[in-house]
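Quick one, probably user error.
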């Protein structure tokens, strides 16, 4: 089992920045990749960015050049994934969910990001 706890959402003006954090605990040695997804009202959940255990990352076209995903592992009990979001746009407004992929998917509770114009 993997537990995910997110933090860092909030309200920001267009052009501003936010950093999301997701702390993973439990069986983190089973995690193959971690990522961030988002879901705006009326839309399906979509991938924003993900990073493998080897450090390979990929991004949605809509956030390339503006968002950066990274991870830090401290001992064998905790792993944190960050999403640095710069040059935010109103269309980035959504609930952001942390994801960890092992033999199955684990999800965080979601954190609201609102970008005002």
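Nope, works fine. Designed sequence:
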């Amino acid at each position: 089992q993997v537990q995910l706890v997110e933090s860092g959402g909030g309200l920001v003006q267009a052009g501003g920045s936010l950093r999301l954090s997701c702390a993973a605990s439990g069986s983190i040695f089973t995690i193959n990749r971690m990522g961030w997804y988002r879901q705006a009202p009326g839309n399906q959940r979509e991938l924003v960015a993900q990073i493998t255990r080897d450090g390979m990352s990929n991004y949605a076209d809509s956030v390339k050049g503006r968002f950066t995903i990274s991870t830090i592992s401290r001992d064998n009990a905790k792993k944190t994934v960050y999403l640095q979001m710069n040059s935010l746009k109103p269309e980035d407004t959504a609930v952001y969910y942390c994801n960890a992929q092992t033999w199955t998917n684990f999800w965080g509770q979601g954190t609201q990001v609102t970008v005002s114009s």
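The two ends are 40 Å apart (CA to CA).
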